[in-house]
Amino acid sequence: MWTLCHHQVPLNTLTIKQDEQQEQIDKNLSTKESYDMLPIQLAITFVFETYIHAKDKPTMTGWVEYLCKQFTACKPVAVWFLSHMTQDDTWLTKVLVRCPNHTIRHMFARVLIDVLHKSRFR
Predict the structure, then answer these.
(1) What CA–CA distance (Å, rounded) separates 85 from 43?
(2) What is the DSSP code string of the chain?
(3) d(CA 13, CA 24)
(4) Boundaries of every domain in the chain
(5) Stretch 86-113: mean pLDDT, rounded?
(6) Taking 70 as the threshold, does the pLDDT of residue 65 lie above it?
(7) pLDDT tens for each residue of 70-94
(8) Which residue in 35, 60, 90, 120 is a FRET match for 25, CA 20 to 30 A apart?
Protein backbone atom coordinates (compact mmCIF):
# COMPACT_ATOMS: atom_id res chain seq x y z
CA MET A 1 0.00 0.00 0.00
CA TRP A 2 2.87 2.34 0.78
CA THR A 3 4.25 1.91 -2.70
CA LEU A 4 0.87 2.66 -4.26
CA CYS A 5 0.85 6.03 -2.54
CA HIS A 6 4.40 6.70 -3.82
CA HIS A 7 5.89 6.56 -0.38
CA GLN A 8 8.77 4.50 0.79
CA VAL A 9 7.91 1.63 3.07
CA PRO A 10 9.12 2.40 6.59
CA LEU A 11 11.77 -0.10 7.57
CA ASN A 12 10.47 -0.48 11.09
CA THR A 13 7.08 -1.62 9.70
CA LEU A 14 8.75 -4.50 7.87
CA THR A 15 10.80 -5.40 10.91
CA ILE A 16 7.75 -5.40 13.16
CA LYS A 17 5.83 -7.61 10.73
CA GLN A 18 8.73 -10.07 10.50
CA ASP A 19 9.09 -10.12 14.29
CA GLU A 20 5.36 -10.73 14.71
CA GLN A 21 5.47 -13.55 12.17
CA GLN A 22 8.47 -15.13 13.89
CA GLU A 23 6.74 -14.87 17.27
CA GLN A 24 3.67 -16.56 15.83
CA ILE A 25 5.79 -19.35 14.34
CA ASP A 26 7.61 -19.83 17.66
CA LYS A 27 4.29 -19.86 19.50
CA ASN A 28 2.86 -22.46 17.12
CA LEU A 29 5.95 -24.65 17.47
CA SER A 30 5.79 -24.31 21.24
CA THR A 31 2.13 -25.31 21.20
CA LYS A 32 2.90 -28.29 18.94
CA GLU A 33 5.75 -29.38 21.22
CA SER A 34 3.49 -29.13 24.24
CA TYR A 35 0.85 -31.26 22.50
CA ASP A 36 3.53 -33.77 21.51
CA MET A 37 4.66 -34.00 25.13
CA LEU A 38 1.18 -34.63 26.57
CA PRO A 39 1.26 -38.45 26.21
CA ILE A 40 4.58 -38.83 28.02
CA GLN A 41 3.52 -36.32 30.68
CA LEU A 42 0.40 -38.41 31.19
CA ALA A 43 2.49 -41.58 31.44
CA ILE A 44 4.82 -40.00 34.00
CA THR A 45 1.91 -38.72 36.05
CA PHE A 46 0.17 -42.11 35.85
CA VAL A 47 3.24 -43.98 37.05
CA PHE A 48 4.07 -41.68 39.97
CA GLU A 49 0.56 -40.89 41.14
CA THR A 50 -1.44 -44.04 40.40
CA TYR A 51 0.59 -47.08 39.38
CA ILE A 52 2.92 -47.03 42.37
CA HIS A 53 -0.11 -47.43 44.66
CA ALA A 54 -1.31 -50.62 42.94
CA LYS A 55 -1.04 -53.82 44.94
CA ASP A 56 0.51 -55.83 42.11
CA LYS A 57 3.09 -54.16 39.89
CA PRO A 58 4.10 -56.81 37.35
CA THR A 59 5.16 -54.30 34.69
CA MET A 60 7.09 -51.86 36.90
CA THR A 61 10.36 -52.58 35.10
CA GLY A 62 8.68 -52.00 31.75
CA TRP A 63 7.34 -48.63 32.86
CA VAL A 64 10.75 -47.56 34.18
CA GLU A 65 12.45 -48.58 30.94
CA TYR A 66 9.79 -46.75 28.91
CA LEU A 67 10.21 -43.54 30.91
CA CYS A 68 14.00 -43.69 30.66
CA LYS A 69 13.79 -44.15 26.88
CA GLN A 70 11.45 -41.19 26.58
CA PHE A 71 13.80 -39.00 28.61
CA THR A 72 16.63 -40.01 26.30
CA ALA A 73 14.63 -39.41 23.13
CA CYS A 74 13.10 -36.07 24.06
CA LYS A 75 15.02 -33.51 26.09
CA PRO A 76 11.96 -31.25 26.63
CA VAL A 77 10.28 -34.14 28.46
CA ALA A 78 13.27 -34.50 30.77
CA VAL A 79 13.29 -30.75 31.36
CA TRP A 80 9.55 -30.81 32.11
CA PHE A 81 10.03 -33.68 34.56
CA LEU A 82 12.82 -31.89 36.40
CA SER A 83 10.95 -28.59 36.51
CA HIS A 84 7.85 -30.41 37.76
CA MET A 85 9.99 -31.96 40.49
CA THR A 86 11.26 -28.56 41.60
CA GLN A 87 7.89 -26.80 41.46
CA ASP A 88 5.94 -29.44 43.34
CA ASP A 89 7.89 -31.60 45.75
CA THR A 90 4.92 -33.93 46.30
CA TRP A 91 6.48 -36.79 44.34
CA LEU A 92 9.83 -36.34 46.02
CA THR A 93 8.24 -36.45 49.46
CA LYS A 94 5.67 -39.17 48.79
CA VAL A 95 7.81 -41.49 46.72
CA LEU A 96 11.39 -40.94 47.81
CA VAL A 97 10.90 -40.25 51.53
CA ARG A 98 7.55 -41.58 52.78
CA CYS A 99 7.00 -44.62 50.56
CA PRO A 100 7.33 -47.82 52.65
CA ASN A 101 8.06 -49.97 49.59
CA HIS A 102 11.80 -50.19 48.95
CA THR A 103 11.27 -51.23 45.31
CA ILE A 104 9.24 -48.11 44.55
CA ARG A 105 11.80 -45.83 46.21
CA HIS A 106 14.60 -47.52 44.29
CA MET A 107 12.69 -47.26 40.99
CA PHE A 108 11.98 -43.57 41.51
CA ALA A 109 15.59 -42.86 42.43
CA ARG A 110 16.74 -44.75 39.33
CA VAL A 111 14.47 -42.66 37.08
CA LEU A 112 15.53 -39.41 38.76
CA ILE A 113 19.24 -40.21 38.50
CA ASP A 114 18.81 -41.28 34.88
CA VAL A 115 17.10 -38.01 33.99
CA LEU A 116 19.70 -35.92 35.80
CA HIS A 117 22.55 -37.83 34.17
CA LYS A 118 21.11 -37.56 30.67
CA SER A 119 20.21 -33.90 30.98
CA ARG A 120 23.70 -33.11 32.25
CA PHE A 121 25.51 -34.55 29.23
CA ARG A 122 23.26 -33.22 26.47
Answers:
(1) 15
(2) -TTTTT-PPPHHHHHHHHHHHHHHHHHHHHHHHHHHHHHHHHHHHHHHHTGGGSS--TTHHHHHHHHHHHHHH-HHHHHHHHHHHHH-THHIIIIIII---HHHHHHHHHHHHHHHHHHH--
(3) 17
(4) 39-120
(5) 87
(6) yes
(7) 988 888 888 888 888 888 778 888 8
(8) 120
